[in-house]
Specification:
By secondary structure, this protein is of the alpha+beta class. The protein has a single domain, classed as Glutaredoxin (3-Layer(aba) Sandwich). It is built from 9 helices and 4 strands. The chain starts with a strand and ends with a helix.
């Protein structure tokens, strides 16, 4: 049986971006079988009655500094986005809409635009650029994110994460063990590599 490494993420999460970049640098040849699991972080927080750090001034200040430290230590290009936080609903649905062969590029492009290039990824012209760069047809994407099937799928993924006791992003699940936060990535990798 192929081992799996579940990576729960939301584009709004800077720590998801940092964990993804670290994973990418460690495993350039896709040696880990990663299952990317999109969730709506705001929805997950609501289910768990959690106030996000973005809405606490002291936590927010620390989070900005912390992300900068993590990025510098790992050689990751990172810039705090001026438009943080945003409502990532449409882009998270979009990840589900995009064809499998284009998901990786969409994932990479959205994350880089938001957390490397300081782009407002909710502006129409910027969404159009992301879609164009990823060879995704605009009308297909816009129709897809309004689909009740896609809406229900994202809601279900978020609810399933909550039922598994996942409460934030990134979260990694390996061998049914939960590892929360980019600073637990090494532990998740150790579990994955455990014979």
């Amino acid at each position: 049986m192929t081992k799996s490494f579940d990576f729960y993420f939301d584009f709004i999460s800077p720590y998801s971006f940092l964990a993804y970049k670290k994973l990418k640098s460690l495993y350039k040849n896709n040696e880990i079988n990663i299952n990317y699991k999109p969730i709506l972080l705001g929805g997950l927080h609501k289910l768990g009655d959690i106030t996000a750090p973005a809405f606490n001034e002291r936590k927010m200040k620390n989070m900005k500094n912390d992300c900068k430290l993590v990025a510098e230590k790992n050689g990751i290009e990172f810039k705090w986005n001026d438009k943080f936080p945003i409502n990532s609903l449409y882009l998270m649905r979009g990840y589900l809409v995009v064809e499998t062969k284009l998901k990786k590029n969409f994932f990479d492009t959205c994350f880089n635009a938001y957390w490397k290039d300081n782009v407002n990824i909710l502006e129409e012209k910027n969404i159009e650029k992301i879609l164009k760069d990823c060879s995704i047809e605009k009308s297909f994407f816009l129709e897809g994110i309004k689909s009740s099937i896609i809406k229900d799928e994202l809601k279900q993924l978020t609810n399933n994460a909550f039922k598994k006791d996942i409460f934030g992003a990134p979260t990694f699940v390996v061998n049914n063990k939960i590892f929360w936060g980019q600073d637990r990535l090494d532990y998740a990798i150790d579990e994955y590599n455990f014979k």
